[in-house]
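Objective 1b. Sequence-to-structure analysis of Mono/diheme cytochrome c family protein.
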Amino acid sequence: MKKVLLLVFFVTSAFMVSASASTPACVNCHAGLPDAALQGGKAHAEQYQGIHEKMTNPMHMSLKDCASCHSPENLKSADSASASLKGGSLEALGTSASCVGCHNKAGTPAAYYTDWNMERVKKHTFSN
């Protein structure tokens, strides 16, 4: 009986830990989708191509998780790209603690959000 109770305890504990773990990166499931599957979605094929094929700066590899910049809660209801960003705007994202450490007003080591190349940002190539 003790063994059964211990087994139940460990299985329940493992389930609770896995249930509270962070959500996996969006691209874990949505990578390599055919163009037809992307139609009508918030992201388009060019953004996926940028993330998977053109992003070359190793500092930005963690950005393959959409939730690095976009709020998962806002993605479904956002009516614009910037509305889905963390904080609801490019300024809020660019001045957040996770970005401003490198993307500060001095531009060292990387450009401040006001100087980002928005064509690359929109295509999610960042550092092509």
